[in-house]
Amino acid sequence: MDIVKQIYPAVALTVVLTVLLGIIYPLAVTGLAQVMFPRQAVGSLIEKNGKVVGSSLIGQTFSGRGYFHSRPSGAGNGYDAGASSGTNLGPTSRKLFEMNVRTAAKAFREERPDTAIPVDMVTGSSSGLDPHITPAAAEFQVPRIASERGLPEAIVLDNGPEFRGRALAAWSEERGVRLEFIQPGKPVQNAYAESFNGRLRDECLNANWFTSLRDARRKIESWRQDYNQQRPHSSLNYLPPLEFARTLVEMRA
Questions:
Q1: Overall number of domains in the chain
Q2: CA distance linking residue 19 with residue 243, whole number of Å
């Protein structure tokens, strides 16, 4: 009888905690997430033509010359969300160097033999799913993408210090791209860009507190998805840009 009295509270507590923490709490958190963060709660999915093509949290393997290539991935056959994993090989591993680093470096060295290869283009992230590359990795790939897609004849810019620097002037002169600066105090001369920049600043940058670079990326990406996929635009017959582009493609087909 004494044993039953001792076992009963333990069993009852186990049942109560299982129901409370194993059923009620997960359902409550899931429900709140669906209401407060509907896009993030389902995985920050990216849709194209009404079809889910990926997630902003997971990288994808690109091989076409006209695209930025992701860093190597050790998850499954590459960026497999069901097999999150790195290579499990340490930085001093000869096998890692021979199989991954050297192979990737050879391809990039053929692409730009006189330029140092950014380290993230030959090494994977610990999860194997990280979608981000460094600015150095992006800059390294710009010549290949430009040769594939072509360069514009001119770029319209405002007079911000980031555009008035020597680096951009040298880049444009070397490639024959004309830089057209708007007149000071005349943002209407670059209306589309200025309008977008104003909305991004007022609705996103000024409206949020960013606690880290990762947090900033997440919040800005959420705003971008809403701007492109959900929000009606008066200049596009009150359609979101994604739906308008889809309609335009169908009309031209």
A1: 2
A2: 44
